[in-house]
Design goal:
The complex is a heterodimer of chains A (about 120) and B (about 110).
Chain A lengths: L2 E5 L3 E2 L5 E8 L8 E7 L6 E6 L5 E3 L7 E6 L4 E6 L8 E13 L2 E9 L3 E5 L2
Parallel strand pairs in A: 2-11
Antiparallel strand pairs in A: 1-3, 3-8, 4-5, 4-9, 5-6, 7-8, 9-10, 9-11
Chain B lengths: L3 E4 L2 E4 L5 E7 L7 E6 L6 E5 L3 E2 L7 E6 L2 E6 L9 E6 L6 E2 L3 E5 L1
Parallel strand pairs in B: 2-11
Antiparallel strand pairs in B: 1-3, 3-8, 4-5, 4-9, 5-6, 7-8, 9-10, 9-11
Classes of the chains: A mainly beta (about 120), B mainly beta (about 110).
Chain lengths: ~120, ~110
């Protein structure tokens, strides 16, 4: 079964760039699914950041689009997140997630499964 | 953006109770609605996709219904392991959005 694991620095300075990588195991990033990043500030709800397809196509949350870059390395079955000009408001647990695309009763649907365990990134000097 | 509003924000229930959580979309999203369960310190887990399809391995006491703007997650006979926070999420728009969550606590 597909498993995802995030890695990267747990502490980033304000105005710096947050960089995380998600390693996919038990499956290929080149499968017919998208690969997403979702974040959750401490004690708060979930926010979709963006996604990438193995072709390199991306979609981003407009609220973050100017600061976000998601890329993929098919040879390593990994995808990455870069978020620039971070502030304390970017402190959150960051999850990498498979964005499943599948037919349900002849209609294409999309859902998030599975999720990585999450990694807390704190923005602080 | 499509806004997702859950109610209630929290509830207290006893083991064995029937629990219903509602999710309302700010516009019609057909059946493009998913439900997740999150326990403290853990990643969310998919329960229901496409409004009413039960994810493999999820107990049958969980069920989802609805279409358009109004959706419901029902847990029949609440179990100790069901105390958690539940989120709805729409996949109608490329900009996926979540409800604010409903925390189910022990009475």
């Amino acid at each position: 079964q597909v498993q995802l694991e995030e890695s990267g620095p747990g502490l980033v300075k304000p105005s710096g760039t947050l960089s995380l990588t998600c390693a996919v195991s038990g499956g290929s990033i080149s499968s017919s699914n998208w690969w997403s990043w979702v974040r959750q500030p401490p004690g708060k709800g979930l926010e979709w950041i963006g996604e990438i397809y193995h072709s390199g196509s991306t979609n981003y949350n407009p609220s973050l689009k100017s600061r976000v870059t998601i890329s993929a390395d098919k040879s390593k079955d990994q995808f990455s997140l870069k978020l620039s000009s971070v502030t304390a408001a970017d402190t959150a647990v960051y999850y990498c997630v498979r964005s499943v695309i599948a037919l349900v009763v002849a209609t294409t649907h999309n859902w998030f499964d599975p999720w990585g365990q999450g990694t807390l990134v704190t923005v602080s000097s | 953006d499509i806004q997702m509003t859950q109610s209630p924000s929290s509830l207290s229930a006893s083991v064995g109770d029937r629990v219903t959580i509602t999710c309302r979309a700010s516009q019609s999203i057909s059946s493009y609605l998913n439900w997740y369960q999150q326990k403290p310190g853990k990643a969310p887990k998919l329960l229901i996709y496409a409004a009413s399809s039960l994810q493999s391995g999820v107990p049958s006491r969980f069920s989802g219904s609805g279409s358009g703007t109004d959706f419901t997650l029902t847990i029949t006979s609440l179990q100790p392991e069901d105390f958690a926070t539940y989120y709805c999420q729409q996949s109608y728009s490329t900009l996926r959005t979540f409800g604010q969550g409903t925390k189910v606590e022990i009475k």
